[in-house]
Amino acid sequence: MHDSILVERRGNVAWISLNRPQIHNAFDDALIAALTEALLQADADPAVRAVVLTGNGSCFSAGADLNWMRGMAAASEQENREDSLRLARLMRVLQFLSKPTIARVNGAAYGGGVGLVACCDIAIGVDGSKFALSEVKLGLVPAVISPYVIAAIGLREARRLFVTGEVFDAATAARIGLLHASVPGDELDAAIERQLHLLAKAGPQAQREAKQLALRIGGCDPVDAERIDHANAELIARLRVSEEGQHGLGAFLDKRAPSWVVAP
Description:
Elements: E1 5-10, E2 13-18, H1 29-44, E3 50-55, H2 66-73, H3 77-95, E4 101-105, E5 109-110, H4 112-119, E6 122-126, E7 130-132, H5 146-153, H6 155-164, E8 167-169, H7 170-176, E9 181-183, H8 188-200, H9 204-217, H10 222-241, H11 243-253
Parallel strand pairs: 2-3, 3-4, 4-6, 5-7, 6-9
Antiparallel strand pairs: 1-2, 7-8
Helix pairs in contact: 1-3, 2-11, 3-4, 3-10, 4-5, 5-6
């Protein structure tokens, strides 16, 4: 397993930690591949009853790594499509994992980090957490994570957050359904343990069926999800190589305002 994640077994629970605290647990190819593999291994292990996903350090995940973004900005549309499909597969694996999943949101989550939270069955975060779907500020859209975020927070809230790219706090995240609860930092572990205690009381087969029932009745189907993922990968690849996307990414990487920002 790559050192960008840590996997620890605590009894019958697999704890998976994003392990790039020096860059706020930002995504790159290696982390995406390692996290996908760790989730599949946990899913295939009959001794694992639940999975807890968290971040090492003070952040949950800041989304895309800057060096990874720089590489994608210079890549072809086909390379961007393939890159997006790898991230899409990670989100799809997490969304449809047969075991119950808990997001232990220990700090800020942006972009793809929000996607990971949305894909988990249960999400508990600390009060000081900040969240954002800020892709439009770069001339992009949250394409790959969009089905899971919309399923979590609803269309009305998603429309607002997708187009504004605004930062929102843990209380708002709980109000709109991204988090199930927001708790003080010193109560986070106790809140996670309470959820694990509840999960441990249920029959594992019934739990698997109950999760699939909720997803199916809610309109989340893995076959449809894969089809949508391909369409969204085409979209984000096209936008990344577009004139506006190239300008927005370049401005972000150079730490300057893009040309479309209008002074108040």
